[in-house]
Structures are given as C-alpha cells and as structure tokens.
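agent> step 3/5: call structure_predict on target 'Mannosyltransferase' (Brassica napus).
agent> reason: downstream docking stage needs a structural representation; sequence fetched in step 2, passing through unchanged.
tool.input:
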Amino acid sequence: MAKFLQSYGYDLILGAIAAIYVLMAPYTKVEESFNVQYDHLEFPGVVPRTFIGAFIVSFFASPLVFILSFLGFPKIYSLVAARFVLGCIILSTLRFFRIQIRIKFGHQVESFFLLLTTLQFHLLFYSTRPLPNILALGLVNLAYANWLKGNFYSALNFLIFATVIFRCDVILLLGPIALEFLLTRSISFLKTLKYCVGTAVVAAGLTISVDSIMWKKFVWPEFEVFWFNSILNRSSDWGLLNQTHSIHWYFTSALPRSLLVAYPLSLFGILLDRRVPFLVIPVISFVLLYSKLPHKELRFIICSVPMLNLSAAVAASRIYKNRKKTIWKLANMVMLALFAISAGYTVFTFMASYNNYPSGYALKRLHQISHPANVMGEEWVHIDTFSAMNGISRFCESAFPWRYSKEEEMVVEELRNRNFTYLVNEHPSVDGYKCLFSEEGFDRVELRQGFPPIVLVKRAKVYVHQDMKADDQLHKKWPGYGVDPQSSGGMAMESPPLVLMSIACMHSHVMAEDEEKDLGRPMIVTLMLKRTVHSLISQISASRQRMPIGRKKIVGNIVEASGLRRTWDDQIILNTPLMYLANMKLPDSSHLLLYMESRRSQPHGSLALLHAGPVELLYYWFYRAPHDSTTTSSTLATILTTTLSSAELITSVVHPFAEHIT
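tool.output (status=ok):
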C-alpha cells in the first residue's frame, strides 16, 4: 500500500479534486455540447468539430454507462461517468509530464508542481470538461513530457496531431517550439520535414475519413475552423456575448486568474534556472501570438498552464531551499501568504462556477416537483436558447412522460399558442403561463464593508412556467385542436339534401292516414340524430378529456388536424338514404325499426342483418377501402402512433363491421 501511494498518491490527490468538481457541477455549457450530445445535424454550430475525441472517451466510458443504464440510474450519471473518463485521460498525460519533471528537476520541484496545480481552479476544473481545447491539452502534455525527455521529434508529432485533429490554434505553439528546436540544433530541418509531413498527412486522413462520415459530407473540421477564425477573423462574431478583449487581456486577466500564485513565481523561475527560459519562451510566444485575435477566452490558452506551472515550481523550490537566509525568508513568507490567498480564491471561484449552470438546476427541480408518475399524459417542456446554453443537455432529460423541445427563433407571444406544458426560459413572465419558480445564477462579485469583504451576487436567471390550463383537460389544446367540433358533427350541416329528405319524410308521416303511418321513417331521422350527437359527445368531448391523460394518447409533434376526416358524418350520410330506401322499397320492411306484436316480426335481428350486410358492405368497399390511407376510424378517436408531421399522419383503423359495437 505504501508503494502504491508513493507511486500514485499525487495522482489520487489531483483526481479527487477533479472528481469533486465533476460531482458538484455536473452540467455543461454550450461550448461543450458538441462532444456531449450527438445532435450535430440538427444543431451544426458555426463550424464543424471532430468526432475522434468523443469516440475515444465513449469507448472507455461505455462499460460504466452500460452498468449505470442497466441499474436504472438517471442519464446525468452517464455524463458524470464520461467526464470521469475524460479526466482520467487528461490527468494520466499530466502524470507523464510530472514524472519527467521529477527526472529532470527533482522530487521537490515535482511536489511544488503538484501543490501549485491543486491550488489552481481552472486546470483541474477544465480537465473533465468535454472541450476540444481539453482534448488537445492531453496531446500537448505528452508533447511537453517528450520535450523534457529529449524526444524532440515525438514532441512535434504530438503537437501536429493536436493541431490537425483537435485545435488548429495549437499551431501557434507548434511554430515557436519547432523554431527553437531548429535554432538549438536539437533537430535537423530535412528530418523534421520528413517526419512532420508524414504525421500531418496521417492525421488529416484520419480526421477527414471519420468526420466526413459523421457529417455526411467531405469535411476537414479544423481547416474550416482555421479559415473561419484566422483568415476571415470572425471568431468574435460567435464568441461569448460577442465580447472582445484588449491585446493584453491574456497577460493582465486570464493568466493571473488561472495561475494565481504561480504567475509571479513563473516569471521568477525564468531568472533562477537557465533551463527554464528555453521551456517558457515558446509558451509565452504562443500566448502573444494568440493575443492578436479579438475574441479571447481562458480556455484558448489552457495549454500554456502546465509549462508555466513548471517554471513556478522551480522558483518555489529554490525559495523553500533557501528559506533560512534573510532575504529568502521574506520571500518564503510572501509565497506562503500567496498560497493561502490562492486557496481562498480557488474556493471562491468554484462557488461562482457552481452557480453558473442555472438552467440545469432548474430542469432538475422541475422534474422533482412535478411528480410525473401520477400523470398519464405527456409533459412537454420547451427550452429556450439561453437555457440550452447554460446547463441543459440531453443528459438532463428524463424518460416518459417527459418530452422536450429546443425549437429556436420562437417569439414569446407564440409560446401560448403551442402545446407546451412547461417553459424553461429567461423571461420572468409569459402570457398564458404561471411562473412556478426561478433559479438564480452567478451575476457578479461585489466588495462591501464588513465580513466577508467579497461576496458573490446572484440573481434570477432562469424561470420555469406552467401552462395555466394544464389541469383543465376539457379545455386543453392538445394536438389536433385546430378542428372545430361543430364543423364536423351532423348530417344537417354536411348534406342539405338529406335534411330535405328528412323534412319530407316527417311531413308525409304527419299527413298520412292513421293506418298508413309508418313510425319507422321518423325513427330513422331520430336514430341518425342520435348517432350524430353520440359522435360529437363521445368522439370530441370525451376524447379531449381522455386523450391528454389516458394511455391512448396523441404523441409526437404539435399538428394541425384540420385535414383529419370525420368519417362518422360520411357514414351517417350513407346509412340514412340506404335505410330510407330499404324502408320504402323492400317488401314487408315497414315498421322494421319497431317491435310490433301484431306483426310478430323480429326487428332487432333483421336490423342487425341489414346493417351488417348491404349497408356496411357498400360503405366499406365503395368509400372506406379507397380512403383508408387518409381517413380515421369512425368511432374511435385518432391515435397518432409516431412523431410525424401533419402530412405523415398514421392513424388507427377499425373495420366497419366492428365499429358500432360500442
């Protein structure tokens, strides 16, 4: 056990801190979404990205994901497992770099390298985030390790792979390092050209072959990124809130926040060890070259942090060794104070980052308070662009009855006309919806008198709304509500000739002599009206009550059902003249609908035979059979079985011989 801790103790420390970050903040931002959820064809983004990194992480994470899915854990645990795997990959490359530090600079420098890394928030926090920058960081760590080891060609090859596949901007680091190797005669130009060109061709062929299949077109993702960002210089058009920074922002803001105490120590380390400048100058050149682009983010230069930490560790080791000397004693006290300040700042920064995913927490809370197990219908949630960018991914979604929509470019006024049970968005109020709760997010840092002197200010950023009619099922606008029930119910509305026929029959019955009166004819009108009313009540009102909460429910997209044919009207129209003709023309058919003791007839059996015979036969073969592809069942409500557009409706069909059983 002691030997194990001696070999892997440092890795366990770094891994434990990274794991805490993952568990406390498991959600992802929009820039991580590509490597998290495979919806690239639906939401392609500004520029394409490679799938190779996601495939590697998925390969190693798949056993964990399978076990979690088999045990019934929510999908968010699969995301946590994938981030754990990514963190292990990145930290293993950092371990290789750290071992080379120990070999070249000694155990004490390695210990300070570990201490500085643990006191910094961003490196370990980002090490588990599925960003292209982090995938490239793994290869850069391997390049740094081979650089310290003296394998210069291997170092260049790793940087080429990172440049061609994951981040084209790594070329800004590759250039200064290759130039230094050439100037110091560590490599020869011809041999470098031979190895590097071959590596670049292999890497380009790999990414083109894989990504062209996934994107369904010929594409080299990082070349398109390079063209968009560097040649067209349009990176600031799609940056975070389209923000741009001054040319010195990396040196005056990003590096001080990411390195903390290591920032001044890294500058001091250049002066204390003559080996350090050859390692640090190419990295500083990388940051300088990157400063030319107007859009700047800390993650863009995250590759520079490990090497700058090495320089800082060299300075910290020298200060610690000479701590008993007068001048060095003061430097040691200042360094210890900076260590404490760095630790406090890291905790403070983590608290801010924890509150930086408000929509993820909002959706989780919605799932907890809505109790969908007691709801038979579907719960539709619309997620706006702001919420999708700040914590929500497909891993946050739950199974049935939850359904989600991320439809973009939808104005607030349109939401009330759509079939959404809940809204998760940035608007405090939406017409037709009531606000259930709001979720606060990090807003700013504020200085104040008293303790603590620095506080995190939060404000409501995401709001969750519920449809006001969600509990009123009779008036709920379920898909298909566009059809007016009154427009499709009743032969009087559909066929004026039948109305005239009914009026004529009623008139003839009234004017006929008593012995000639046939109650069968007015009963035909009565029965048909009864069927019309029955259709309206059971097929529309009852369906509107049952469909949103029952098992036979409409699923899929919101559709306008104006094209759905109400075939019970057509069947009533067809049955009515056939019954009139049978009553008037068939021998001994009068009084067929009544039970007359004097005639000793069996009207119920005759009526059943008549209805199951010519009426249904004619109706089915002359009308229903040619229209089964577009019509619905006469007596059963429409059931959409899949998520289709209104032009691709799939409906249930009941054979007409069985339609009147109910």
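agent> step 4/5: record observation. The radius of gyration is 37 Å.
agent> proceeding.
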